[in-house]
Amino acid sequence: MENLSTIIIIVVVLLIVFSSFVTVRQGTIAVVTVFGKYRLILLPGLNFKIPLIEQIYSRISIQNRSVELEFQAVTVDQANVYFKAMILYSVLDQNEQTIKNVAFKFVDERNLMQALIRTVEGSIRAFVATKKQADVLILRRDIVEHVKDQLDQILEGWGYHLQDLQLNDITFDEVIMKSMSQVVASNNLKAAAENEGQALLITKTKAAEAEGNAIKIAAEAERQAAQLRGQGIALFREEVAKGMSVAAKEMQQADMDTSVILFTMWTEAIKHFSENSKGNVIFLDGSNEAMKRSMHEMMSLQMLDKAGEGKK
Question: Are 57 and 74 within one domain?
Fold first, then answer.
């Protein structure tokens, strides 16, 4: 019996000794109480507590935690706005007073979540109630900053800190969403029409400029061509006159009648007409009387030219 009692005592002592050692996981802090009253906190790692007297009240995670929520708000112009948000929060720090606030401010985690969510919803609703429907979508950052400013002091009293608030989705009633889509579509159509009109104006302007430049270039080319043609005709006539003058002098030196030159020019002209007519019909009076009349007319012109030169 004595050996059995000794064994029991040794086992009880070993259990008490081993129960005095407590392991706290990384990322958590253990809160220790003595007869229901706060005693101390245990940091991550191996810790020692008084057996049977000190009890682990709770283990508090100091890691970031998140919660999603959905709620509705009403704008100043009575439009319903539906929010889907994500709250990222954590314990403020590892100070003893902070841990005491986290451990004892709320009965359990469910009550904390309820208070946190309702506080965030109330802050956003109060902000949205002062804004118009058209302004809500562009005020996403302002809403987040407003909520943080409102909640930081409240959460610090609870021992928590709001890390981030993300408004993942902001929607309106179906009728409002449809009207907003129609406004966007009409604005896009208006912008497209304006762009198309500008593009058409630019195209027509450029086409008109190109046509005008083409007309200017063609007119300039025609002017230069006419000038060159005139210069060519003038040079041709000058060369013809020089040739006739030389030929006339040679005929006079040879004591021959210069009318032979006129006859040759007449026959050459007829030959040129026939070679270059290209199928066109040219009517010429080829009779001897017509040739004699033409010869007399050309000789009379020559005589008038000589008379004019004699007077000079």
Answer: no
pLDDT-based confidence at residue 157 (cuts at 50, 70, 90):
confident
138 CB-contact burial (10 Å; exposed 0-12 / middle 13-18 / buried 19+):
exposed
Give the SS3 label for residue 124. Answer: helix
Domain of residue 195, residue span: 175-253
> What does the radius of gyration of the chain's CA atoms come to, in whole angstroms?
58
Mean predicted confidence (pLDDT) in 39-50: 87
Domain boundary among 116, 143, 172: 172
> pLDDT of 126-153, one tens digit each?
888 888 887 887 888 888 888 888 888 8
Q: Give yes or no: residues 8 and 87 share one domain.
A: no
Q: Contact 172/134 with Cβ under 8 angstroms?
A: no
Domain count of the fold of the chain: 4
Q: Which residues contact 288 (CB under 8 A, 6 or more apart)?
A: none
Q: Are residues 72 and 166 in the same domain?
A: yes
The pLDDT, as a whole number, for residue 295 is 66
